[in-house]
Amino acid sequence: MGKKTQSQEITDTGIMVNGIRANQDVLSKRGIDNAFANELQFKVDECVTLNAEQETLKARLKTKTEELDAAFASMQKKAMEARKIIKLDIPQSLWKEFGINDKR
């Protein structure tokens, strides 16, 4: 079996907190008391919040990537149009001035 995902680990740790609270009489002898459970629950809650923020950022990134891809395709189309016109109207010796390194 492979490594757990962060999401699964967060869920399992939340379940652990509930188990600690339900069995505090046995575990408190080893230093796992209510304060420990509260601290662990705080960390679980922090991870849940940060995970939700990360998922929101991933969604925004996907949207922004789609916007970039569309803008890039549009730019390339315009640049190809300009390249064709430049090659027709400008002598080949001056093409480098336009960033065109073609030989023909």
Q: What are the defining features of this structure?
A:
mainly alpha; rod-shaped; 74% helix; 104 residues
Measured on Cα atoms, how large is the radius of gyration? 30 Å
Structural class: mainly alpha
Number of strands: 0
DSSP strand content: under 5%
- The residue ranges in which pLDDT falls below 50 over 5 or more consecutive positions are none
Q: Residue-averaged pLDDT, rounded?
A: 94
- Distance, first to last CA: 59 Å
Number of helices: 3
Question: How would you describe this structure to a colleague?
Answer:
It is a single chain. The protein has 104 residues and is an all-alpha fold. The mean pLDDT is 94. 74% of the residues lie in helices and 0% in strands.
Topology:
Blueprint: H1 6-22, H2 24-27, H3 34-89
In short:
This protein is mainly alpha-helical and 104 residues long. The chain contains 3 helices and no strands.
